Amino acid sequence: MSRTGTELAKLIKGVDTIDEKRIVIARHLGSALGQRLLRIETAFLKDEDGGWGEWPDLPIRLFFEPERCVSVAWSYFDKLFVTDDQTLPFDPEDCEVEWRANRLTCFAPLLEQPLRSIWLGQGDMTLGSEPVEIWTRLLLEFEKGWMEIYNGLDENAYAFHKKMPQGKFDKIG
Questions:
Q1: Longest dimension (CA), the chain
Q2: What is the DSSP letter of 109?
């Protein structure tokens, strides 16, 4: 897919308004509706001792049939990065990164299941005692459960739900 400089700049910095989030989610995940989830890849970073550790700052990669990749990452308080390829939101520079398939075992029941719907959800945040409207939950519905990719304080966090979780959600597709 060919992108303009403005589109690439938005990809790299992510989007933060609810309208921008709706647009990028619909654009990059909407065509996966009805498609089976084939595998899920997450990044691992090689540490100084030669071991490997999860690196949730990089996107989760969702591969739908036929080998179509959608990358999702949350950063800062509410920035969302979504592409329909393996683009990264930042350059990992000299870090050695390895992508591993299906390491999030909580999502095993969702593999080979078609994507049924896509939702953007409001997160929980307060400033003092006042609630702040912040849309930081991406929810994907499959036949056997729900995949939640949410902002875990400047990185991706994940949850599996057997039924739709509580909260305020806006259906995208």
A1: 47
A2: G
pTM, whole model, 2 decimals? 0.88
The kind and range of the H/E element at 136 are: strand 135-142
Q: How far apart are CA 151 and CA 160, in angstroms?
A: 15
Q: How many other CB atoms are found less than 10 A from the CB of residue 74?
A: 29
Domain ranges of the chain: 5-168
Question: CA torsion, points 111, 113, 118, 119, in degrees to nearest 10?
Answer: -60
Position 24 pLDDT exceeds 90? yes
Q: Is 127 helix (H, G, I), strand (E, B) or coil?
A: strand
Q: What is the pLDDT of residues 96-107, one digit of tens each?
A: 889 999 999 999
The residue type of 98 is: E
